[in-house]
Each structure stands twice: as structure tokens, then as C-alpha cells.
Amino acid sequence: LTLLGIESSCDDTAAAIVTGVPGDAQVRASVVEGQNALHARFGGVVPEIAARAHAERLDSVVADAMRGAQVGWTDIDAIAVTAGPGLIGGVLSGVMCAKGIAAATGLPLIGVNHLAGHALTPRLTDGIAYPYLMLLVSGGHCQFLVVEGADTFRRLGGTIDDAPGEAFDKIARLLGLPQPGGPAVEQCAHAGDPKRFALPRPLLDRAGCDLSFSGLKTAVLRARDKLVAAQGGLYHADRADLCAGFQAAVTDVLAAKTRRALDHYLELAPEKPTLAVAGGVAANTALRTALEEVAADTGAVLVAPPLALCTDNAAMIAYAGLERMALGARDDLSLSARPRWPLDRQAAPLIGGGK
Ligand code: ATP
Ligand code: FE
């Protein structure tokens, strides 16, 4: 099967061509056009600007992906598109583009959950078998999932407030670093002392796999304000130490909870477990190193996709569409865009369309 994938749920306009079968597929082209420059002066993604930029760029991004893969419409079996969750204007732009192509070419349309795209990425990059334990850590989400099939996810726990990615972004904003905050904070943390500030490890001792990041964020804010009050501003070393301390706290909490989730998972599937990680925050090197340690200690195999496939892209959407298509899933022009769409529950509020 060859699928065109389209992704526009946040601030990346993306299209990709993926060919293969479930568990054995190749990325033939993957084009991602970011919008950082458009949102930079607002200190965050502005939904209306994002939606407009997606609408303007989708056609050329799709054309670039098809040119890159050297395919025409007759080589393509279906169009997979992110149908949620995400910023609704952007999701609608992508769904409308996909519907237009489907109407013009007669190709089948397959709506994909953006989170399923992230969660199935290790099947695309490493061909790992079901079931596996997934730590999904992104800009808007943080959860432990048992992935049993392309449409079967069991949630073991997750954040009760902020997602780590949005926490990284907020810390960057607090410290005057550029967006997206994750890479900026990671970079700044290199030179820092993670022990200078005593930052909390929220929910570390609580049973279960739930996490919390908002208290940690507030603690960084307090530490910053104290420094600013005492010395009138921040020195570079202060920023580096705050970034390093914050990153260490996030990493400690995620590693400890991953250990817990693996214990739970081992009760369900006692064979040698596969631990996979995906989502934008999985690009963080300190986190990857900590998870490697957890995997080594517990006898699990860690699979972490290459960075370009951890952050938003359309290859993961094309691939998730391919898996759903192989299961017999088909959508039509009544496909709806969903602002919210939990992975483990199909029922979700709909916008537009019929179903
Ligand atoms: P979601 O997938 O939950 O809808 P999203 O699509 O916006 O959210 P992703 O593109 O998966 O999220 O990830 C983007 C997030 O990843 C941003 O918050 C960014 O700061 C974070 N991120 C990217 N690189 C790093 C890094 N090296 N360290 C930490 N965080 C990072
Ligand atoms: Fe994402």
C-alpha cells in the first residue's frame, strides 16, 4: 500500500508518502514546513495564524512530498489525514485539503488520530511487534499506553495537569529563551548545575503512573522571581542552572513513572517487554539517556524513533492510516475534525461533518 499523509494539527504543515504493510513500511518522502517564524513575536502558537498558514501551504507541501517520492495520484492507494486532536482551525485545514483531493481523485480517505500517529511511529521506524508499552510525551500530552493494535490502546496513567512539552515551552518563556522551548531549554541546560535549585519531583511517591508538572513550573517561576528581586535580573549561569534543574526534575519523574508503568505492564505481558517512546519531548537527550537506564535495569528493550519522526510529521500519519486501512477502516467526505479525541475512547465531541 502507498499512502499520502497530511498533518496540520499544530504549527507544522506536513505531507508524506509511505509505502508498505503494517510492521514493514518505508518513508519515501516526508516534508515538514514549520511556522516558528510566524509565531515568534507572539511567544506561542496563534491558532488563527496557524490555520491560515496551513491552508496556504498544504497544496505545495503535498506537491513537494509527491515529487520527492516520485509518485503520481495513480500510485497512491489512500489519503490519511490528521482528524484531531489539535488546534481545530489547523485540523480543519488539513481535513478540507484531504477531502478535496479525495473528491477529485476518488481515492479513499482515512482519518487518523494524531496521538495514534505518534504512538505507532516505532512500528514504522523499527517494525516492533504488538503489544508494547509506549511513553507518549509531546507538546500537549503525556501518557503511558499499552499499544495492542492500530486501534487498541490501553491507558495506564498520564499527566493530571500540564504536558512536559508545554512545561518546557513555559520555562523557556519565563527565562526569555526562544520557542519552541524544549530544544532551547535543553541547549541552555548543558552548561548548568542541576543541583543548585531544589526543585520538586511532583507525585514521585504516589502509587500508579500519574504525573504532574504544573507545581514544578511554579517552583521555577518562584526561583526566577527571587533571583530577579535579589539581583535585578538573571545571569546566564542562573538561566543555565534553572534549565538544568528543571530538565533533571522532568527526567527523574518520567524515568521513575516509566519504571512503575513497566512493572504494571509486566503483569500483563511477562515476556521481554518493549518500551517505546514518542512525541516531541522524546527528542530530549537527557530523557532518552534516563529511559535507557530504566530499560537496562528492567530487561526491557527501548525503542526511540529518530528525532525528525518524534516531533510532528506526516509520515506517522500516513503510516497510522496504512495500519487502519489494513484493518478495513475507511472514512468518507463526512469525516469530522475533532479538537479533542482521547486515544482510548472513540467518543469525542465533533465539529462539522456527520459521524
Ligand atoms: P501533541 O502531539 O500533544 O498534540 P504537539 O504536536 O505540539 O503536541 P510535538 O510536536 O509532538 O507536540 O512536540 C512538540 C513539543 O516537544 C514542544 O513542546 C517542544 O518544546 C518539545 N520538544 C521538542 N524538542 C525537545 C527537546 N529536545 N527537549 C524537550 N522538549 C522538546
Ligand atoms: Fe504532536
From TrEMBL:
- The kind of enzyme this is, by top-level EC class, is transferase
Location in the cell: Cytoplasm
Q: Which residues form the Gcp-like domain?
A: 27-319
Detail which positions bind Fe cation: H114, H118, D312
Which Gene Ontology BP annotations are present? Answer: tRNA threonylcarbamoyladenosine modification
Chief localization class? cytoplasm
Q: Which reaction does it catalyse?
A: L-threonylcarbamoyladenylate + adenosine(37) in tRNA = N(6)-L-threonylcarbamoyladenosine(37) in tRNA + AMP + H(+)
Taxonomically, which superkingdom?
Answer: Bacteria
Tell me which cofactor or cofactors this protein depends on.
Fe(2+)
Under what name is this protein listed? tRNA N6-adenosine threonylcarbamoyltransferase
Which organism does this record belong to?
Answer: Pseudaestuariivita atlantica
Q: Which gene encodes it?
A: tsaD
